[in-house]
Every structure is written in C-alpha cells, then in structure tokens.
Structures
1.
Amino acid sequence: MSNLFRMLADLAEDPAKLEEFRNDPNAVMDEYQLTEEQKQLLTSGNQGDFIRAIMDEHNQKFGPFGGRLGCI
C-alpha cells in the first residue's frame, strides 16, 4: 500500500488522526512521507486532479484492469 493510500485509510478509520490532519495537515503529510506532488493534490482542492492521481497510482500498482480500487 502506498503512503498516500495508507494515510487516506488511516484518516477514514481513525477520528483522532483525522482531527490531527485538520489541525496540522502538513505535519500529518510529512509523517506519511508524501511527495510534494501528493501534498499539492491534497491541499489544492481540485477533486478532478486528486481522483486522477489516485487512479494513476492504482493503475501503476494493479494495471488499468487489475484489482478493485476498494481493495487497496
């Protein structure tokens, strides 16, 4: 699992981590060692770019027809 997916899963599952992210997103993103591009996607507010990046990362790991996004 990539650092980005790991962080997103933790934010979805752990209310304390989500609160930490709300209070200091840069510290949480640094904790997960996200790239500058990933940080920019998360903070830009551009949903289309974010969704494309998630799909690109998924496709790199599983191929365009492999795996289910919900299984990451």
Note: Helices lie at 3-13, 15-23, 25-31, 36-44, 47-62.
2.
Amino acid sequence: MLHPSVRPCLGFAACSGTGKTTLLLELIPRLVAAGLRLGLAKHSHHALDLDRTGKDSQRLRMAGAAQVVVAAPRRLARIEACSRNLAECLALLARAPAAPDLILVEGWKHAPIPRLELHRPALGQPLLAPADPLILAVACDAPPHTPAGVPLLPLGDADAIAACVLGWLAAGRLG
C-alpha cells in the first residue's frame, strides 16, 4: 500500500475500452451527493500538454521554468515537465487546500491500492482479481468466474457501486 498520509483512495482497474471513465462520470455525482469531497488521479498513456504553442505559459516553460502555475479566476493549473508516479499524484491531491475525503484513481491497474476491477468478458481480457488481493470487487456486464470472496457488481448499476464504495470507505477499507 502507499504511504499512510495519503487520503483514502480507490482505483478503477480495467483494460482500455471497458468503461472506466463512463462509470466514473456516473459515480462521481452520487458520491458527491453523499457528502464526499472527491479528488481524481487519471493515468494516461498519451502525451499531455495543457499549453498551447505560443501562449505565455508554454513560452515560459520552454524558456526553462521547471514548473508553471497558471491561475485564472476559477481555475488553477500546474504544468510540470516530469514523470509522475501514482504516489506523487496522490500526495499532491492529499495536500491540496481543499483536501478530498476520497481520491478516485483511474488507470494504474497494478498500483498497490484498493481497486474495483471493471470487466467485460466480450473484450476477451483475463480477470485481474484471481491474482490480485487488492481488488475489492469486480463490476462486469456478464458474470465471469470470480475468485471466492470477491463480490460481483453490475457494471451498469452506479447506485449499487456507489453504495459499495461508501461502505468500503466507512469500514476503513480504502486506506
């Protein structure tokens, strides 16, 4: 597991195209309605550049600034030329001025954090749960063979998944 000073977190692990973002878009409003302040760390295999060529922030970064923080009336962005691992991302979210009650993690499917595995048997990918004790449950659209003791949740039922997440958080299972 990650350092104990990190806020409770829950990963969403699945192969690309399974519906991690779709589920999170349905789940986040339900968790917020339950009174949680959420943070989110999303892993991407694609290049990420928030600067647009020729804009001041991009020009300042290209001139050699290691970090650029752009502040607008309602948003703040930190642009840093480095490689971030999950532990660094979680620590950054945990020490934010409005630290979240729960950090949701999309991607990093093998990270040492509690995770919900999303699975669609039609995609032909193997389940992670049989070999991964940190997977708390499997949410899927067709029942796969899951290991004994690993709950099976309906992937299309965000209410049921939100109830599980709230239960895990209340029971201290998310860190």
Note: The mean pLDDT is 84.
3.
Amino acid sequence: MAKTKGKKRKIGAGDVASNRYASYRYELTERIECGVVLQGTEVKALRASGAQLKDGYAAIRDGELWLQSVHIPPYLPASRENHDAERPRKLLLHRSEIERIAGRVSERGLTLVPTRIYFKGPHAKVEIALARGKDLHDKRQTLRERESKRDMERGIREARR
C-alpha cells in the first residue's frame, strides 16, 4: 500500500499536532493538560493546517508557564493581520500546579516537553510532559524493544494464518 503524499500520520483522532519524537528523545514521566492563549488567526491556522512541536519546549518565567519554539503556520486568508509563527504562547494552569511543576523541574533536572495539541470542545489544549533526556544507550534499547515487539506481533500474525 502506497503512502499518500501530503498527509501526515497522527496519533490521536482529535489531535491537531503530536510530538511522536518526544518519546524517543525523552523518558516521559507525567502528562499535564494545559489551556493555551491564542490569537484568532492561530486558532484558524491550527484547525486548517496544524502545528509543529518537534523543537518545542515549555518554560516557567515569572510564575507563568510559556510555550516556546512551537511553529503554528500563518493563516493564508488573513494576510495582513497574521500572527508571528514562532511567538511564545502562555499556557494556562492553576498557580498551585505551576509551583508543583517548577519544584519538580528545578529539583530533579526534568524538562517540560509539549507532546500534543488538540481541541477539547471549542478550546485548544496542549499536553505537556515532564521529561528526562535519554542517553544514547537508552535510545538504542528503545529501538531494540520496538523491533522485538514488532517481531513478536509478526510471529503471532503468521501463526494465526
């Protein structure tokens, strides 16, 4: 079966964008759902063409959570009033959750990585994960586990024939 050109594979049914590379680069420990402050053209661009999360990260500045380096492409029909594609976007969480996350990030050397953007009703949501960077050895082990899982599934399928 040939791949269709121009279509990207996504994980979830309602996902606008997902960062599948994050689970390869990082060991993801805890996932947190956040609201995100967007401009009007950003919402339309998300619904139309999605976003790119590969190099994105979240940072805590002045007691607020900010999403950095996430690319939301410009919305073409709004040529004059378009948004900046790489601007920092504020994430919405309760103060106590931000303080708890800040403590874990500073204490344990974790980082905040966006894993997916999706719509929940009319609101755009961002899922961030507390993550620890993997060593090269860990990445190789992840690849080995994935290959062995694929081989086992292939063997089961062939045994059922």
Note: Residues 1-7 have pLDDT under 50 and may be disordered.
4.
Amino acid sequence: MFVLMRAVTYASLFIGLVLVFLPSRLLSLAGIVQPKFTGLPQVAGMVTAAVGAVLALWCVTSFFRVGHGTPAPFDPPRCLVVAGPYRIVRNPMYIGAGLTLAGAALFYASFGLLAYLCLLFLASHLFILFHEEPALKRRFGEEYSAYCRTVRRWVPRL
C-alpha cells in the first residue's frame, strides 16, 4: 500500500508541475484563454488528452503493481516492468504525457504549448538515452537488453 501512495504522490507532483502548472503559465503569458465555443479542434484536443491521461495512469499502475516501485527515477521499480503498455513501446509514460500536452495544444490552438511539447520530448529523449537506459542496463542486465531487442523505444513494431 505504501508503494501505491508513493506512486500516486510522485505522479501527482509530475503531472501537476509538467502537465498543468507550466502549460497554464505558458498560456497565461501568451494571453490565451479557454475558447468560447467548443469546435472540432477542442473535441479532438479533449479526446487526445484523455487518451494520454489514461495511458499515463496505466503506466503508473503497471509500475506499482508489476514493478513494486514508482515512475520516479529516485524510487524506481524493483522488477523490470514489461507488462501493460510496456509490451508495446519502452516509453509509454512519456508518450501519454506528450498526448496530454498535444491535446491541450489542440484545445487552445496554442503553438506555445506545441513548442513546449517539442522541448519536453527532446529533454525526455536525452534523459532516456543518457540516464534511464544506462541505469536500467546496470540494474537489470541481460533481461533489459533482451527487452530492448524486442520492444522499440518509441514506435511499436507492426
């Protein structure tokens, strides 16, 4: 139960900062407000953001159920998580976060949020390449290497 509480706490802090606070500050600084009418871009944005949120929450659930840990780099899973969305791509949590931001960018028609998404993706990719993957290789050895050979980083195999 304590692992669940830690996972929810860390996920809430990440979501609150990276997916709510910073984007809302960007929108505020750009003078962008909620659209007066809900059109196709807003509906598409809400659907995209909802899909991203569900994916991200599925990832958090997989981390504490399967991995007995959290998504936080300083409190990682005890077991390698290769179940749930991690069967399809190695970084579904980042994809989920990206989809939520893409949905917000669509909803608000904000190029600023789209630029923020691109910067966040670049930072995440570099973090994955230079920190996360080497740490996982050290921690899980051949099990992680075999996983990398069968599951791609960003784009699922067809």
Note: The chain is about 70% helix and 0% strand.
